[in-house]
Input
Amino acid sequence: MKTKIFIDGSEGTTGLRINERFSGRDDIEILSINSELRKDLAERKRLINESDITFLCLPDAAAREAVGLVENDNVTIIDASTAHRTENGWAYGLPELSAAHREAIKKGKRIAVPGCFATGFISLVYPLVAGDILPKDYPVSCFALSGYSGAGKKVIADYESADRPATYSSGREYALTQQHKHLKEMQKITGLARTPLFSPIIDDYYSGMVVSVPLYTDLLKKKETQESLLSYYREYYHGEKFIEVSKADDEIAASGFIAGNGLSGWDGLKIYVTGNEERVVLSAQFDNLGKGASGAAIQCLNILLGCEEDKGLVL
Output
């Protein structure tokens, strides 16, 4: 029997990519909504409650509203918005963090897909806190580079407009008030005592991102080097299909650069540790539309269905 899927918000960037990823799958039946009724509350409610699994690809307020429409206890919600990522009762959709995270997704009826920047940050920081390497009160900072597709359809249209401003041809730092919407989950999921300092940059390419966390080695709980941290990450993520840990010479082989779009189109995430004995930089490179959005949502679906986690994905 096919699993009935409804994508609420199917015309947004994430919704479109999720729908594309079901092409060729014979285990899925998509419940489609007439484009003229995509904001009709009654029609959305009907389809949500007829589905086995509903993906929410909506603004936060609309996602909360959609959850309130659920009357069928058998319906599972996979929410790609920010609305429920730190809410009690919602599984956090980054299964590589621990066996408990994967089990919560497997058994969950409410699953929150991580934010794209948060995915990179948490994949780097959570293992170090869990392994008692990074103190919870460390004043963590993070800088990140992303393609413009992560900002939604309006920004995509702005960047691809023939008469766009000249400033769009360069990287543009934003979230200057330190109030980025991913900060809440970045702190809560990792267990940090302080809210991280976060400086994201949107740049003039379509998709892909690098999220980096610089650390002073003498402020860690024990002596660590670039090599020992790489070894730790390899052991921590051993057997995980979606996470690759670099070799020590990867950065050198790439002429000393980690490109923001270097893994565009790939649904995994790659971890680098660069620097020297005194200062290291942890970096996660991935596609903001892959492991940072629709790819992660499909991975969570696959866990729910008990099939291969990479089914329909690119690794």
Notes: The first helix runs from residue 13 to 21. DSSP finds ten helices and 13 strands in the chain.
